[in-house]
Amino acid sequence: MNDADTDTDATDRMLLQRMSMGDRAALAVLYRGYHGRLCRFLSRLTRRPDVIEEVINDCFWIAWQKADNFHGDSRVSTWIMGIAYRCGLKALRQHGDEPVAEDTLGQDRVPAHDPGEDRELRDWLGKGLGCLSVDQRVVVELVYGVGHSLDEVAAIMQCPVGTVKARLFHARVKLRNVLPSLAGESPIRKEGAP
């Protein structure tokens, strides 16, 4: 963990401590700080903005209720992502992931992580990620999008680190084969192969 991560975690811990004493302003600060990250993360589970917002609200309701149960065994971000992941899975079981009309998926409802990114590249990568299983998409997002370690992802997903490694390996293999075809090229071949 670098110095910025340590400072952020210390601030988050202080906010959780204040939340455990009933400080709603601390909850609001933590909510605003995590909302964008959670939107991006949860968009790997579902494309439905209504479900994403419901999950974020459920996540912070649980964080509010359980703030005094956080004992610092992990970073606060790992704890919150774990709650969001479990809430997301529960919401998918309840709502399914029935598609919604493309025009109802406005950019203002689920913002992109970096508005300056090349939209075409984001769309291309999004289509590639759409070819992965939910667990593979979540692992890719947590490791590469959010920056969690494999140990933290295992804690979030409540599975062994070996399972996380396997999901990440299979996701990379699938992306390596799928992304070129989505760009109109043939899959990557080893040198000398026909």
TrEMBL record:
Annotated ranges, domain RNA polymerase sigma factor 70 region 4 type: 125-175
Domain of life per record: Bacteria
UniProt entry tagged with the keyword Transcription: yes
Annotated keywords: Sigma factor, Transcription, Transcription regulation
Cross-referenced Pfam families: Sigma70_r2, Sigma70_r4_2
GO biological process, one term: DNA-templated transcription initiation
Domain RNA polymerase sigma-70 region: 30-96
InterPro entries (UniProt xref): RNA_pol_sigma-70-like, RNA_pol_sigma-70_dom, RNA_pol_sigma70_r2, RNA_pol_sigma70_r4_t2, RNA_pol_sigma_r2, RNA_pol_sigma_r3/r4-like, WH-like_DNA-bd_sf
Presence of the UniProt keyword Transcription regulation in the record: yes
GO molecular function (one): sigma factor activity
Family, per entry: Belongs to the sigma-70 factor family. ECF subfamily.
Name of this protein: RNA polymerase sigma factor, sigma-70 family
Native species: Rhodanobacter denitrificans
Record lineage: Bacteria, Pseudomonadati, Pseudomonadota, Gammaproteobacteria, Lysobacterales
